[in-house]
Amino acid sequence: MAGKLIQLARLAGPSHVDMSVSVGGVQLKSPVMTASGTSGYGVELAGYIDLEKLGAVVAKSMAVFDWPGNPAPRVCSAPASMINSVGLQGKGISWWLSNQLPKLVERRCTVVASIWGRTLGEFEQAARLLASAYGISAIELNVSCPNIEDRNHMFAHSATATADVVRASLSGGLPIWVKLSANTPDLIDIAGHAIDAGADGIVLINTLLGMAIDIDKRRYALGSGPMGGGVSGPAIRPVALRAVHDVRKTFPEVGLIGVGGISRGKHAVEMMMAGASAIQIGTATILDPRAPMRVHKELLSWCKMHGVARVGDISGCLLKEDNSTEYDSEPISAEEIGQ
Ligand SMILES: Cc1cc2nc3c(=O)[nH]c(=O)nc-3n(C[C@H](O)[C@H](O)[C@H](O)COP(=O)(O)O)c2cc1C
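Above are the sequence and the flavin mononucleotide SMILES. Below is the predicted complex in structure-token form.
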């Protein structure tokens, strides 16, 4: 009898789902955020969705200086994905603090600023500048940029350089999230160094290194030429999922944010089951500015349908439960692979 009642309650679903989560030193109203660089400085989406309802608006990465970015063309399509070579173009942090942050604060958004730099000193200056402003909940470190003090090697591909950036940015006093690259076999080591250096949260993943060629013109498809660009969208979702899963498995306590190819509520569920406490929506927002709110609503519906009263309970459930299931092996067709 009791079992039947529980089953019925499950079918009816909880009337209220607690969508709030705590991640990387920040309390969020929803686990769904925007991803840096895919919706401008954040306020651009305000005409489409109620930004206040999102977990957070993560602004485009900024430096302490103006930066022209790469020459056009800066985007092209690729199978189940896009490639961009925007190259971190932007007007700099001081401009953002005076012209954009107040608009986000006025709309009562939870704001996460994203910074980049070419040296540790530039990261430190950026973090200090942001810490003196009102209305920023955390700083996300975009370490997928060249370190000019180390032969232009990407910070994100070195455990020690990543840890140094985290330490340099802590001086501002805000919670620090570090966004890592999956283009390295050392992801676990790099995440471990970032956590030991004091990172409050790990964001996985930035775009994957890619390239496209215009065969008719016999030249690179993007203006960045031999530098290529970053691949994003549905094609990278399995890579992001694996990165989140592996980091969660090694560091069960770290605040983990999943990003890569999420466009539906069920993708968010999948990423959270793999270990993310929260997620970000990137390329899907470029295709449809309402995507982050759609994912929020679909995630809420999924929780109701599956009797989940607190969305945070999904997080990492795959790693907590017994998954020694025997699988039926189904052949996959060429259409499914998308040839
Ligand atoms: C056009 C474009 C610009 C981006 N700019 C930034 C950026 O400024 N800083 C950053 O950390 N990531 C940037 N990203 C990476 C995204 O935030 C995200 O990590 C990546 O695209 C994977 O998520 P997605 O598949 O949902 O887009 C950018 C991605 C795109 C497509």
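Residues 24-324 form a domain with the TIM Barrel fold (CATH 3.20.20.70).
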